[in-house]
Amino acid sequence: MKELSEILEEVRGRIAAAAKRAGRDPAEVEIIAVTKTHGEDVVREARDAGLRIVGENKVQEAAWKKAAAVGGMDWHLIGHLQSNKVRPALEIFDFIHSVDSVKLADRLNLIADAIGAQPHILLEVNVSGEKSKNGMKPEEVAPTVAHICRDCPRVTVEGLMTMAPLSENPEDSRPYFRKLRELRDATEAALGVKLPRLSMGMSGDYEVAVEEGATWVRLGTVLFGERPKVKAVRATVGDDDGTAGGGLDSYSGAGPTVRILD
Question: I need a surface site. Which of 27, 49, 66, 120 has the fewest CB within 10 A?
Answer without folding.
Answer: 27
